[in-house]
């Protein structure tokens, strides 16, 4: 594609990287940009190149964005694609090693606090204020806007992909077994048990349970249950909330689903769960809301018009369904960028409401709504009616993951304990108690 340079990054070694001082470079280049800069000037950046680090699930949007931004501004976009669980390490190493290869970072929102404190992300608070007429920050769903970008009273990016999970189901499999979509986690367990016992001999299972060890995977499955049981990650004072009955119940519910899931949950990630559901091999999957678009695409789905979606179930004494903000990505400027003016133009272009609508309505984009105007737009209601109904009124009250500077460490610790539960090495009670103890120590510093 004209104007697009794609590079692939294989594994990035996970290592302990020392924190760096915050860069604090926002104000100087605010002045250099000048008031009134536009998204699409008359090829104002012709002959220049900007580098974007993006996660693999966003590769379709990366291709489109590169072509469209060059057409609008004349600037080429070099897109580097990395696995979703390696983007933080790649971004941090790029800055702290001095390589400074990337200008724009596609970052997972629970890492915003760490990326800000270590100086990887640029503070863009003043840029947002200056350009708020074009950015329309009040249009963002407030919970998403704050969770994705706010740390220490400053903002470090703009939301790009408003992720959350819904419970998707295969209508045909449920009908064959005389079942309805479950309202509670107990109903869910009973349903997947019935289906697996009846149909596993034919390669059909009750559910694909995402239990891959990466926090973004197993942590999302746990977050769905934690929200369903009315729990939270942190208390209002910032201390660990994993000492609650809901936290333990969520781990138990995750374990209880494992015997009736597609083998095996610990090895089931995004990459394994999606084709299993689209291929009609599982009855249920908790997945990102854009699955509703993939499921209706006959080029990759065998279940067109044979699926539905509801909010994740409730459990215990909780009777109010609640979404969890699982995954979720924003675009920020790398503090190591030597092209911060151009990087900011790319971010504004990619996140403006009109362009986000294009991405939201593009099959395969992997983009979910993060703006109120898009979530409730007639176009989105027509494009993904079942998904829109599940998200409307839910994203505003969803369970957000912690975003403090130690949040990545918290999530990795929890993911490790949950993996031990699924492996049968610890009971849910012991694993959550150990996670709570570890969290308490991490938070205390």
TrEMBL record:
Q: Which Pfam families match?
A: SBP_bac_1
Q: Where in the cell is it found?
A: Periplasm
Q: What is its main location?
A: periplasm
Under Gene3D superfamilies, the record lists: Periplasmic binding protein-like II (3.40.190.10)
Q: According to its record, what are the GO cellular component terms?
A: periplasmic space
Q: State the SUPFAM superfamilies in the record.
A: Periplasmic binding protein-like II
What family does the Swiss-Prot or TrEMBL record give for this protein? Belongs to the bacterial solute-binding protein 1 family.
This one is known as Multiple sugar transport system substrate-binding protein
């Amino acid at each position: 594609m004209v104007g697009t340079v794609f590079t692939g990054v294989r594994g990035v070694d996970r290592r302990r990287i020392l924190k760096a001082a915050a860069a604090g470079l926002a104000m100087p280049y605010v002045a250099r940009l000048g008031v009134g800069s536009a998204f699409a000037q008359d090829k104002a950046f012709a002959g220049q190149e900007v580098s974007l680090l993006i996660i693999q699930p966003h590769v379709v949007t990366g291709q489109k964005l590169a072509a469209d931004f060059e057409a609008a501004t004349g600037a080429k976009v070099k897109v580097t694609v990395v696995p979703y669980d390696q983007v933080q390490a790649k971004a941090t190493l790029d800055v702290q090693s001095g390589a400074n290869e990337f200008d724009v970072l596609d970052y997972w929102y629970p890492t915003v606090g760490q990326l800000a404190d270590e100086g990887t992300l640029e503070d863009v608070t003043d840029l947002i204020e200056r350009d708020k007429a074009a950015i329309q920050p009040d249009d963002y769903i407030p919970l998403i806007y704050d969770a994705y970008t706010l740390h220490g009273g400053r903002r470090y990016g703009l939301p790009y992909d408003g992720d959350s999970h819904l419970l998707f189901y295969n209508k045909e499999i449920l009908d064959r077994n005389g079942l309805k979509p479950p309202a509670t986690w107990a109903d869910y367990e009973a349903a997947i048990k019935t289906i697996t016992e009846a149909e596993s001999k034919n390669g059909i299972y009750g559910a694909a349970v995402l239990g891959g060890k990466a926090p973004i995977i197993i942590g999302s499955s746990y977050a769905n249950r934690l929200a369903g049981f009315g729990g939270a990650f942190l208390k209002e004072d910032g201390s660990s909330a994993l000492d609650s009955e809901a936290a333990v119940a969520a781990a138990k519910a995750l374990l209880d689903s494992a015997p009736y899931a597609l083998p095996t949950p610990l090895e089931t990630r995004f990459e394994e769960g999606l084709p299993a559901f689209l291929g009609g091999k599982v009855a249920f999957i908790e997945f990102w809301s854009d699955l509703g678009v993939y499921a209706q695409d006959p080029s990759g789905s065998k279940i067109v018009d044979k699926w539905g979606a509801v909010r994740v179930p409730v459990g215990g004494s909780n009777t109010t369904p609640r979404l969890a903000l699982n995954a979720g990505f924003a675009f920020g400027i790398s503090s190591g960028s030597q092209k911060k003016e151009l990087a900011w133009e790319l971010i504004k272009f990619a996140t403006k409401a009109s362009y986000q609508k294009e991405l939201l309505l593009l099959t395969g984009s992997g983009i979910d709504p993060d703006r109120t105007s898009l979530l409730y737009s007639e176009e989105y209601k027509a494009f993904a009616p079942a998904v829109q109904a599940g998200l409307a009124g839910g994203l505003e009250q969803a369970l957000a993951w912690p975003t403090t500077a130690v949040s990545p460490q918290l999530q990795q610790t929890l993911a490790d304990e949950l993996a031990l539960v699924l492996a049968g090495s610890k009971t849910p009670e012991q694993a959550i108690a150990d996670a709570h103890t570890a969290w308490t120590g991490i938070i205390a510093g």
